[in-house]
Amino acid sequence: MKKITYLLSILFLAATACKKDPSKDSTATGNKAISSDSITAIAKQAWIYGYPMFYNYKTIYANAVNKDSKTFVGGFNKFKSSTASATPKDTLVVTINNDTPYSMAALDVSDEPLVLQIPKIEGNRYFVMQFIDLYTFNYEYLGSRVSGNNGGKYLIAGPDWKGEKPAGIDKVLQSETNLIFLLGRTELDSPSDIPNLKKIQDQYKLIPLHQYTNQAAPAVKKYNMPLPVWNESDYSSPEFINVLNALLQYTKEDSSEKELRAQFAKIGIVPGVPFDSSKLDEETAKAIEKGIADAKQELEAGVSKTTDAGNLFGTREYLKNNYLNRAIAAAMGLYGNTKEEAVYVGTKDDNNKNQLNGKNNYVLRFSKQQLPKAKYFWSITLYNLPKRFLVPNPIERYSIGQNTKGLKYEANGDLIIYLYATSPGKDKESNWLPTPKNQDFNFVMRIYGPDSNAVNGTWKLPLPEKVQ
Prior knowledge:
Blueprint: E1 3-5, H1 9-15, E2 33-35, H2 36-65, E3 80-81, E4 102-108, E5 114-118, E6 127-133, E7 138-143, E8 152-157, E9 171-174, E10 179-186, H3 194-201, E11 205-208, H4 209-212, H5 240-248, H6 258-265, H7 282-305, H8 316-319, H9 323-333, E12 342-347, E13 361-366, E14 374-384, E15 399-401, E16 415-419, E17 441-450, H10 452-455, E18 465-467
Parallel strand pairs: 8-9
Antiparallel strand pairs: 1-2, 3-4, 4-10, 5-8, 5-11, 6-7, 6-10, 12-17, 13-16, 13-18, 14-15, 14-17
Helix pairs in contact: 1-6, 2-5, 2-7, 2-9, 7-9
């Protein structure tokens, strides 16, 4: 393979992880070379590595950076809560949860930690606070399962914070990235329960540490690159490198990734170093573009083969730096829970391995013994394909499950769910989950507080049966 000599000094600047002017750097002489195959391989790996970060940032950008966004909440470190279940109009997150209205907050702890204050939650109402770092690792949890419903105060800190735990703080939750997405979920029993839900959500508080301790505000940390403007097309071009460089400023390099980051630097991926993709020579640009195309193909193949996403979400230690799985998880359902918190199982196929489509009618049968055991509750939510958004329908039902009012069981305890585009009949509408007419779809079952059989995969989801 022909060697491509880099004429761009920025690439050699990156290879030495140096942030000074490359024109003043004696190593930036243009005498190093890397094959196009190597460029493609590195670009492929870097694209997959960065995919979940990029789409995590899409949500962070909409919530905290883009003042023109409908979901903008006024900046970082502010909660935005939904007081109702999701609808088809909610398209910011794919495979959105319809059971527990969200309380979202994009956090930046670059300057100082934050104190999260959680109220006491009465009764057995389920809630959870999921902490997702910029990489999309679920690095911490609070809530009914982990810490109970008695409330508390918790310190959210970045990777470089080394202070003492302040008085009154129950636990320090330290992230390996300064950008964090905090996703709270609080169970909503019914529309009449909305005032109670709102009262709880209003008591979720984020307090800067200096305010909590009555001290002066800290100095503002300055980064070499500003946060990027979200642009969907950037991730389909060599420009993804520039975006990744901006986002990586908010991370701390893990020791397990030292060699990986060194490889990335060979094509210009270095935290805080601007990358001008417009100055790439034609062969280099094509090599990077081929890496992107190869990565997309591998990701799409991984998504199509995945029916059980339960093992795709968790900590760095749990995922063992499997970056493809991390990307598949983000593509299939950004911010999915760790399986100990909630198990996700679903299908896009019927029992004959044919794609589910709303032109057909299906029944989903659970024997009494086959119904999942959940400490909290279970539900099934249906999505259109390929977008993975909720499906508009005349009864405005987007999920069905254990807490669905009026759900009917058979005399022997079995349960039948009707997956029809039109009504299965008045006597069956209590168990009807509407499908999109003449359109492919899938569904996901969520089991909150799953028992060991669901966690270890022993329990299996039945597949829908096509009916005439």
